[in-house]
Predict the 3D structure of the following.
Amino acid sequence: MRRRPERQFYFRLAGHLGSSSVEKLLEETSSRELTEWAVYEKVAGPLGGKRIDVAAAQIVAAIYNVNRKKGAPLINPSDLVPKWDDYQSDEDMWAALRSAHEAMGGTTIDAPDTPE
């Protein structure tokens, strides 16, 4: 999929249009219409989930930035948009969450041992 970014576009478009599959979308949609949709996405912004991620990041950054402690750095919304294609281990994710939590003044409480 990384070598064929147009496939990523087809999946976004299929999800946006509620198509049951990319194969069905491509069978039912002309090359001209696919091109128009691609141009539309370039003009209007990403289709589907990524657009929601960007909007959520903008809202979170705005709330954080107006409520941050004096002297604390601003957060850029682009730093908050998930990077879905990047692999991150569970340990790395928890470390990043703890770091962000502590940077915002949160305290860490050790969880009691839980049975496996």
Summary: The first helix runs from residue 5 to 17.
